[in-house]
Structure formats: C-alpha cells, structure tokens
Amino acid sequence: MSSMNRREFLQLLAAASAAGFALDARSVWAGGTGDSLYDLKKFGNVHLLHFTDCHAQLLPVYFREPSVNLGVGGAQGKAPHLVGEHLLKAFGIKPGGIEAHAFTYLNFEQAAQTYGKVGGFAHLATLVKRLRAGRPGALLLDGGDTWQGSATALWSKGQDMVDACKLLGVDIMAGHWEFTLGDKRVLEIVEKDFKGKIDFVAQNIKTSDFGDKVFEPFTMREMNGVKIAVIGQAFPYTPIANPRWMVPDWTFGIQDDNMQKTVDEARAKGAQVVVLLSHNGMDVDLKMATRVTGIDAIMGGHTHDGVPKPVIIKNAGGQTLVTNAGSNGKFLGVLDFEVKNGKVSDFRYKLLPIFSNLLPADAEMAALIDKVRAPHKARLEEKLAVSEGLLYRRGNFNGSWDQLILDAIMEVQGADIGFSPGFRWGTTILPGQAITFEHLMDQTAITYPNATLTEMSGEQIKGILEDVGDNLFNPDPYYQQGGDMVRVGGLQYTCDPNAKIGNRIQDMRLAGKPLDAARKYKVAGWAPVAEGARGEPVWDVVARYLRDKKTVTPRKLNQPRLLGMKGNAGFAG
Amino acid sequence: MNTTRRTVLKGATASGVLAGLIAAGALRPTQVLASEWNKAAFEAKDTAGALKGIGAAAPADSKDLVLKVPDIAENGAVVPVDVVSNIPKTTSIAILVEKNPSPLCAQFEFSNGALPEASARIKMGQTSMVKAVAKADGKFYTAQKEVKVTVGGCGG
Fold first, then answer.
1. Under CATH, which number does the domain B5-147 receive?
2. Quick one: which H or E segment has residue A111?
3. Quick check: B151 and A479 CB within 8 A?
4. Where are the domains of chain B?
5. Which of A96, A336, A553, B114 has CB 3.0 to 4.6 Å from A44, enough for a Cys bridge?
6. Which of helix, strand or coil describes residue A130?
C-alpha cells in the first residue's frame, strides 16, 4: 500500500466498484500512511479547513447529489449549475471512480454500495486532525446550518452539535438555520458555550431599531506570522425563508456597502488575507465577488453545491476565489494560501469527500456521539417501513423523499394538492433499506413542523408557485433565496424558468382538468412561517402513514414539464 | 397603504434623521407637521397623479440621488428606505411606491442648507418599484429600484 500512488489507489477503488465489492477501512489503511485520497501535500503558509451545511448529521449517511440544478441567465452552463457528466467534464474528473461518485448522482445506487456512507463527525474529526498535523495553525471554519437537520439537534436545541463542534475544534462560524432556534437561544450559545472558543461572525445582522451590530462582523487571527481576517455573512434572507418571528429584532440582507467597509477595515488593521465565510449561496457569492473588492476567498455554503474547484472572479481589486463545500458532512474544503510580501501570491484548493470507510472514527468524537444518542436510541431506531426504491431529496423540482412526504400528507389529510418546501438538506435511503424514525427526522426536523390543510383558490396556488419560482430562477442572484422549487403533489404544471414572474407557471391541471382560478382547493402542506400556526408535527403524520404501509413502493415523481431547458448543463435528462 | 402624518413621523423618528434635523434647528416642527401637508399628492391613487401633485410630472434620472432599499423586503409592513441627495440645492425629497394604493409615502422639506438625507419605514403590499424624487434648484430628479415582497417560506 505504501508504494501505491493516488492514481493507482483510485483505480483500485474503481475496480472494486465494478466488481461490486464494498471497501472497508482496513483494506485501505493496512499498509500504514500510504499515499491516499487524504494525503494532501501542504502548500503555502496560510491554511483554512472549511465545512458547511452539515445539517446536524453526526453519523455517516448516504447523500445523492442532484440531477437537476438549472442555471438561468448568466449562470447557465457554469458552476455550480452543472450535473452528472457535465460536471465531470468541466472539472476533469474521471467517470466511474470514487470522485465521480462523490460529486455526481451518476450510478448512485451501485456506487453507494461500493464506497459506503459519507460524512460523520467521528470520521471528519480524524481527517481534521490529520490535516492539522501537517498544517500548523490551520483554522477550521464552519459555514453554518450546523445546529439543525436531525432529531437529536432538534431535541437538544442544537446542544449536541455545539458540543461536537467544540470537540472538533471549530474556530469560526457563520449561520442560517441556527436562527430557527430563536434569537435568545443563539445568543445563549454564542455568549456562553462559544465564549473564548468559537467566534460567531455576521457582518449583515443588525438590530432592526437602530441598526446596531448583533455579532462581531469579523475576527482577526495570526497564522505563521500572517494576519488573517475572517468575515461572516449570515443567510441574507433568513427572515423571509424562515419564520421572522423567531428573530423579530434583527435584520439581515446582503449589504454590499457594509461588506466593503468591513473588508477595508480589516485591511486597515493589517489583514494580509481576507476570507469571507459566507452563507449567501454560491450564485450570490459569485455576484458579490464582482462588486466587493479585497476579498481573497469567499468560502461559501447554503446552496449545497459540491464544487471541486474554486471559481476565480477577477475584479477591480485583483481576484476572489469562490468555493462551495456541499452539505450533510460529505465534504471538507482545504484552502492553502502562499502569502509573500504581505499579500496572497498563490493558492491550492481541494474539496475532499469524507468516505467513512476510508477514515477510521475518532474515538473521543464517537464516544460523544454515542452519549448524545443513548437516551433516544429506541425512538431513533424505530423501523417505520422498508423502501423498495431510492429515496433522495436534492433536485430543483422534486425528489423521491419529498414525493413520499407529499403522498403521505395528501392521503392522511384528504387533500387535492400537496406542497412541500424546497429544502436542500435531508439524507438518502438506498433501495431495500429500512426507513427509521431518525431518517424521517433527517427530512423534517425543524422548529415549525406543523402539517397544515388550507383552502386556496387556483389563483392563490398560481401566485405561490410563481413566487417560489422567482426565488429560484430570477436571473439576478440577489433576488434568489437558495432553496429549490416547492414540491407539488397532485397538480401538474409546465414551467418556463427563463420567463418573468407571472409567466413561469403555465397549464396547471388537476386530474387532467385546468385549474380554476376562482375555485377553492384543499392544499396540504407543512413548515408554515407565520407565528401561531397550528397543526400536528409533520413527522407524526408521515410516520403514521409509513407504519401503515410497511413497504414503500418506488415513488413516481410529479415533475413539471420544462420549457427552454433543452441542453442546459444543469439538467440530466 | 394608508399614509398618514403619523406613519411619516413614526418612520422618520425611528431613523433619527428627521429628529436630528429638528434638533439642529434646520427644520421647525410646525413646518414639517402642518404647513406643508399636500393633500392632493398624498391621496393620489397612481404614481402619475402623485408626481403631478408634488409638481414633478417628468423628473430626470439622476445618479446623484442615492436610494437605498433592500432587494427583497424582510417584512412588507416596514420596509426601510434611505435617500441621500448629492444634488446641490436640494430642497425636498419624496418617496413613492408605485403599486401602493396611494403611491406617495413621504415628502421631506429641507431648508437653510440642511443635509438632504431622509430615512423612513414604508409599507408595501406587493413587489413594486420604489422611487425617490428630489427637488433641487427648481428641477426634479429621480432614482428607482424594485423591491420584492414575497410570501416567504420554502427556502434553504
């Protein structure tokens, strides 16, 4: 093993994949510290490790990347709007190997069997320790969406993730779903648990009365004699995409002007490297890099794009690297800068997929995770049903997991139409795998989980679809919110992403008949953002449905007919 | 939108800008609150009528009039607007929301060389163009930007 180089190692994995073997840690590690996927040669004198949007996944999971991630306007045909073979080609990744599996949906079911699960904090901890050993002073950045996404994070109000991140050695953090725990809980964690350990930074959160800062906009660190500033950017549309009443006294927004001032202030204080830890979403980050100067790298998240290489944006101040590091604990980004004569002269970047079979679990982290889960074990591991097909969420319009949720809420509540939010988190279930209560919580664990049944007119339904469609397909990224299209059950429609708001959604039909603008329809949904919303938690509704079915047949996805998307590199079909 | 003096006052006070001007003696409260109330302009039901009401039927686009509004409103009931005029001899700034039932939201008068900056919180029922109109040396200038008002939810 020690003589095996990286290329041979990957070939071995590809061969194993073709033969249908599962890999285990021993077969890879038996030879000691050989050249492997994770032996990344140190470069330069400033080192940043970045994970984002892990959505509280402490254990290894399966996660299928999207087959539909359309780019419109200036984003068409460019990262991050590349799927499948388009992505492999753009980044020079060999088809059929472990990296092709990590970055695309291609051959997902078989490759997932071969390479096994991804992520898991105990495996991530091992990788972080290894990289830190070879990169003295390296900073670990958490882009946020860390305290939400699992049953244990919901039940502990984020405490399990806070403890895990402290143990992992996170240095600096930004946020989004964190705020759905409420402003008081966020401040409690930042002021008590994080004090003196993790800096929670956000240049774009202000008090709504006097515009005072709520968190530090940036933090200065010194590494190997180089001064570095890390600025934080919270998800700008948190009070719109999520319940505003949970953060009633704070405003967010993109705030380019204030970002520029913050960068200038950091430079004036001697920062030789300025990094933005961003939860804008990649399209917003790409635009911001053209407008704000003096940022060496925007290390981004929110849109869950696993982008193998940085996009380099030239601007008036030089250049800005824009990265995005995927989701669900699947990746760790490693950015090395060489800083000479007070400024960045060169860089290396690698987005490492975390294959849990290839990285032994860190004992201390594994023990913490066991401790967190122990009181809830029986509830988490309840088998609700067995899935015959693949269940996944990611994709612009629908996923089989969302279809299952739609089928459940419509049947249980006797609705004509179902709406399920276009969230991008949520793990994947392989065919034949049991769906546990924990898996269901991976799709639904939020602090406003109410299942709802609402009477809506055809006109209102069209209005909602147009509104959400514009959040996804507005050609100006600053009007995009970074989620996917609301998943729709029962109702067929045609979507023209290139059209303007009001004209994107066409030919809406229910059981073949055109939707009547004036008629009222029963619409099942969940995750209402209004204060005081009522309704049973959606996980209880879906759990009941699953226990009753026992076996879940492969889902038939309700997807819109698309116009004008032929040849789009963000579309697999 | 039911624009009243109360909402104009409330918005301006929250920003502190108008209050600051009054404290500095640049504006006398009576001047703001009573004498200049332009009933016809504030009650106009469309933008053309409101513009006509303030005497600005065809204002010219100006980059020296800086309008700051969010791309997407966090809360349509209180959208923060800030307008700064860098045009010499600016004597008034008006804020309009094209698709509001009564488009004219606020009008600020500046005298004796007061710094022409106005901030307010305005109410918007739907996605609309927001317009600032400044009067300087007898001429009218405008700047505009669309603010999106969305139903919310479904993100991330």
1. 2.60.40.2470
2. helix A108-115
3. no
4. 5-147
5. A336
6. helix
